[in-house]
Amino acid sequence: MVNKIDIFLLTILLFCAHSYAQHEHTDPKKEKPKETMQHEHMQMTEMEHEGNPTSEFLMNEGAGTGINPASSPMHMSMLKRGNWNLMSHGYALLNAIQQTGPRGGDKVFSTNHLMFIGQREFGGKSTFLFRSMFSLEPATVTDRRYPLLFQTGEAAFGRPIVDGQHPHDLFMEISAQYARVLNPDTIVHFYFGLIGDPALGPVAYPHRVSAQELPQATLSHHLQDSTHIVSDVLTAGLKYKWARVELCGFHGAEPDEERWDIDQGAIDSWSTRFTFTPIPNLAAQVSTGHLKKPEELEPGDIQRTTASITYNYPMPDGFWASSIIFGRNHKEAEDLNVNSFLFETLWQFQKMNNVTGRFEVVDKEELFANDPALQEELEETVGRVFQIKAFTFGYARDFDLIPGVQAGLGGNVTLYSFPSALKAFYGDNPKSFLIFFRIRSGHASSHQDHKM
Q: How many domains does the chain have?
């Protein structure tokens, strides 16, 4: 416990020091109101970068080449060094989770990440963007997992993870992008990630605007957005007005349980994604991809198909962001389809109050992967695939910690519905309770305010 708390406090100090330094550099003489700073920044960037839409195009990305609505809030610290625009974003959460029922667990852990972006324009028609993203979760999520009822996917200590969520890797993304204007309506772009996010699925839950006050992973993560950390990603895309098509090749295996290294492999998988952004408040996508043996302990390949809509409604004192996501895995070795549906929403009002909700319906066929004999017995009597329903609702309140750092306290409760055959193993009415303390760097402004 001491080690975990020490690491979390060190993370807090690093984020606070970084954000405070950014704040002091931006305004060394006198602290100005947030609204004034954001207005001045918007005017400056619009004047400096008018006529180069590739910069705004790249800054709309949440991770990899996936995008949130352009009106979505961003928590970003920014500097200008010569011809380079430098940005950073980070958050750290100290979470305490308690779950009831025979398979529930309790734990204190930290989820966190830190992102750095460097961006440079050339000739008014093209832009380079370099992004790196890191997480200390290999140290702050001990035993290679935290409790999460009905969650499955990946491995820990050579065994499938069941009723738990794996941590992210130290290296979440190391990537470079290039975008160029072909004509007033058309942009071509290229993405390479040593570690990156292929063009498959919606923006992953750690970066999705509608999920930013829900620390725990979705139960449908491995049917929708689990490819957000893979290796050797190559993507080419073409945007025409408000529509975009992407083709992508990548190494299909998800990260192994050694979270400190950089996994590598041949490009053996592919995906394609169509994205639609007809208005700044909406981003929709449909995608499909063939994943070559994504799970370390499971045989066979997967064909993943997803569709999603994210809508953000800005308000004078906050915003309301919601996502609807469908995901399906077709497991070729078993000729089996497993499906998922997710709805999540975040309503921020009075600039400091955050009400969250998430509803999931997801098929789970790996709940007894660590007991093959029991799994086979259940498959013969009641089937192998179980439909799980989970409803999460919560609240978080923001407050200022030091200049340039936003803190928050929050929590949520999750209730479940599942087939009666599982009650012998999970109890009649298991619940999950999570409370958290969160810090993040930078003040909130929209993607539209960062037209670099």
A: 1
Q: How far is CA 262 from the centre of its chain?
A: 19
Round to whole Å and give the CA distance between 166 and 252: 18
Contact 148, 164 (CB under 8 A): yes
Angle among Cα 437, 64, 404 to the nearest 5 degrees reads: 35
Q: Beta partners for 419?
A: none
What are the backbone angles phi and psi of residue 313, rounded to the nearest 5°? -115, 105
CA distance linking residue 50 with residue 56, whole number of Å: 10
Residue 217 is encoded by which pair of tokens? 């992973």
Place of tokens 């994604």: 273
Predicted model pTM: 0.86
Contact status, residue 366 vs residue 379, Cβ threshold 8 Å: no
Residue 207 CA to chain centroid, in angstroms? 3
Structure tokens at 118: 């460097």
Number of residues that this document lists for the chain: 452
pLDDT at position 50 is 52
CATH code (residue 161): 2.40.160.10
In this prediction, residue 405 carries a pLDDT of 84
Residue-range definition of the domain harbouring residue 359: 2-449
pLDDT at position 443 is: 58
Q: How many CB atoms lie within 10 A of CB 188?
A: 15
What letter does residue 350 receive in the DSSP assignment? T
Give the C-alpha separation, 134 to 173, whole Å. 7
Cβ atoms 151, 224 nearer than 8 A: no
Q: Give the pair of three-digit tokens for residue 291.
A: 């994943």
Q: What is the mean pLDDT of each run of 10 residues along the chain (452 residues)?
A: 43 44 43 36 39 84 91 86 89 97 96 94 91 96 96 94 96 96 95 96 94 96 94 97 97 92 92 97 98 90 97 96 98 95 97 96 96 91 95 95 87 97 96 96 56 42
At 428 the three-state DSSP class reads coil
In the structure encoding, which two tokens stand for residue 417, read together? 């519905």
Q: Do the beta carbons of residue 245 and residue 274 sit within 8 Å?
A: yes
Residue 327 to residues 201, 225, 285, 333, 341, Cα–Cα distance (Å): 8, 9, 12, 19, 7
Q: How far apart are CA 1 and CA 280, in angstroms?
A: 45
Contact assessment for residue 160 and residue 152, using Cβ atoms and an 8 Å cutoff: yes
